[in-house]
Structure formats: structure tokens, C-alpha cells
């Protein structure tokens, strides 16, 4: 029986663990709180992944190490290198295959559909941090791949849409959005991210390179409208936030200050090319309405 270790306990980690366990494979989930779903084949362990010796002990004998974990958003430049170094050391000590959940920040601004073979040219601190994490893993000689997701939406998502639009739309209130309302944007469902992680882990062709999670591409206004219609809520009322609005919001929580770096270029669609994921890994994007229905 195959066995796997997943570092993290969020929505993507949970869905990945359940997919593996439902296929009859053992999973050990590691997080500081020891959280995770209940399943006979899932073992939940409370441990700090930056404790490299403990992480190595917990990973020994596994076939694959998945990581979906990340430090607090505003602390990425300081803390992500520490976490990633510990994970990579455990991989090198144990010889397990290594599957990383990443995002799209490392590319920086681009024109046209974003492909996984694009250079990582981000100059901001979060983008450069993400690039460094992948570049060091890829250069290590380990058997490694990275699955890069877009902005999450749907059940379990933690994103601009879930935090600033979803609840307001369902309540019939005005939503202020730090994103252009009518420009196409690619969104990833949690379930699609998990399915891509599992598919990549099982395909020898997947290692040594990155893959894009399949996405749904539509504007914020279109996505909010789909959500409202499914929920029977009023037509969404949306307004684009100004730079001043976002700056004031940043005084309440460090997370919001970090959005300045990752907002897309004005007037430019943000579209993800996931052709190879569909063709080689066999994973496609879930229908948008199906993803949104999971919220109810």
C-alpha cells in the first residue's frame, strides 16, 4: 500500500488527503494543530514542519511528500525560505517524491495566456520568494514538481473573491473589490488543485517541471452574478476599490497591504493556459456552477 505525507491542513490539503485515502492509500497529515479530516487511512499529526529532524522522521518510508503549507501572507519573505529549506532537506534525506503546491506570483506581470514554461521574472518580495522556493527545489536533484494554482474560489477558498465578494453578494450588500470588475481573470477550484496534485504525483512525466491547475476564466462581475443566481440573491452590487481604500484597509490587517504587489496590470486579462495539464495529467476544470454550489 502506498503512503504519503501532506504538510498542511487547509482546504487543498484536506481534499488531497481524502482523494488519496479514498483510493486506498495511507496519508499522514502534518500541521502545528494536528488538524485534518477523519478517515481510517488518514493519520493526523501535530508537528512543526520547520523542525527538520521531526519532519524527516515523520516522512521516512513514505512514497510522496506533498506540501500545501505557507506562512502568514505578510511574512513570506522571512519565513517561507525557512519552511521550504526544512521540507527540501527532509526530501533529500528520505528520497521521497516531492509535490509542491504553488501559485502564479513568481511569473510577474505577463502579456497573453500564462504558460508553465514562462520564466519566473517577478520582482516583488512575494513573487521572488515563490520563485526562489521552486528554483532551489528544482536545482536540488530531488524528484520534484510544482502545481501552480490561480486565485481560489468555491468551498474552502481563501482569496480576494471569497473574502471580499462572496459574503457580500450572498447577503445582498455592496462589495468593494481590489480588482477590475469586467476584465477576465482565471480562478482555480480547491478540488481541481487537489486532483492536479494527485495526478502529478502519479505521473513520471510530471517531475522536473511545473503544472497549472485548470481554471475557469471570467470577470469578477460574471462570477459574482453566477453566485447570486444560484443562491437566489439579489443582483450583485460591486464597486472597484481605490488605492486609498486598500491602503486604509491595510491598517486593520497586514494581509491587505500585501495585495498591492499581486494585483494584475490595469486593463490586462489574467488568463492561465492549462492545456498540458488536461492533455498529459488528464485533469480539467470543474464546471463553475458545480464549484459554487458547494458553498450552499
From TrEMBL:
<dbReference type="InterPro" id="IPR036291">
    <property type="entry name" value="NAD(P)-bd_dom_sf"/>
</dbReference>
<protein>
    <submittedName>
        <fullName>NAD-dependent epimerase</fullName>
    </submittedName>
</protein>
